[in-house]
Design brief:
Largest sheet: 6 strands, mixed
CATH architecture of the largest domain: Sandwich
Strand content: 25-35%
Low-confidence stretches: 1-74
Structural class: mainly beta
Helix content: 10-25%
CATH class of the largest domain: Mainly Beta
Number of helices: 5
Order of helices and strands: HHEHEHEEEEEEHEEEE
Shape: flat
CATH topology of the largest domain: Immunoglobulin-like
Number of domains: 2
């Protein structure tokens, strides 16, 4: 994680050793600097004799380039008592399934974009007696490059239930063929059309894991330039796709749409 120790930039040589020690290290700052246009620079001004008057406003105007590392724990406020092991996002282009029904109808399968992430409970402050989690959430953030030169940010929170704490499972999100074509202008859009994907695993009101692709972890919590947040192109969970009945045991169970 990028860190900048600014003591020598702030503390001028003083006649007394006590002042130098007291203000030796001002602090560590963390900012993301991915290519989505996030600003990650600070400027530090030296004051002539009154070092004591340095304020947070001065820090925000001073010079120190910083970057957020992959862990990003400080920025992302991880839970101290609960955690998940979280894998890297994986992608697949899935054609709409052509299921025999006894009626012959012409259809040209189109490509869906699937993103899935492997998860497993790592530790729990209070382990359930039946070894299952009642519920957890995945907050998804997806940026797709548009044919108009913009990036479009889509978000979705998906609630999962009945997760065995001793088994691996996958969570997933989908973009439909029509959404992909509408955004990108391509009939066969895919992974290369993604600017970034990020997500947070939430359990008991706390973040217990996160994942990122294309940008440094935590990019979704930063101010994004040249990115338009939109609901025109919905992210979908597996139950909202034609793949709902397939590979059922691979994926974490979804809360039914009429669930609370």
């Amino acid at each position: 994680m990028g860190a900048c120790y600014l003591s020598k930039a702030f503390v001028r040589k003083s006649r007394t050793l006590s002042i130098a020690k007291k203000y030796q290290q001002i602090g560590t700052f963390f900012l993301a600097a991915p290519h989505l246009g996030f600003l990650a620079s600070l400027k530090v001004r030296k004051r002539s004799r009154k070092v004591m008057q340095i304020s947070f406003k001065n820090l925000l105007t001073a010079a120190c380039s910083l970057a957020l590392s992959g862990s990003a724990l400080a920025q992302l406020e991880m839970s101290k008592k609960n955690s998940f092991d979280v894998g890297k996002p994986a992608f697949d282009n899935l054609q709409s399934p052509n299921v025999p029904t006894g009626n012959s109808k012409k259809s040209s399968p189109k490509d869906w974009l699937e993103c899935e992430v492997k998860i497993k409970v790592n530790k729990l402050g209070a382990e359930p007696k039946d070894k299952y989690l009642d519920q957890f959430k995945v907050n998804w953030y997806v940026v797709v490059k548009g044919q108009d030169g913009k990036g479009y940010l889509m978000t979705k929170t998906i609630t999962h239930v009945n997760l065995p704490i001793d088994e691996e499972a996958y969570v997933s999100v989908y973009l439909s063929p029509n959404s992909l074509r509408r955004i990108t202008g391509n009939a066969r859009a895919g992974k290369s059309d993604l600017e970034a994907i990020g997500g947070e695993i939430e359990y008991a009101g706390e973040m217990v894991g996160f994942f990122s692709h294309g940008e440094r972890a935590g990019w979704w919590r930063k101010e994004l330039k040249n990115i338009e947040r939109t609901e025109k192109f919905p992210l979908l969970d597996k139950s909202q796709t034609p793949f709902a009945p397939f590979w059922y045991d691979r994926y974490a169970e979804l809360l039914p749409k009429n669930g609370n």
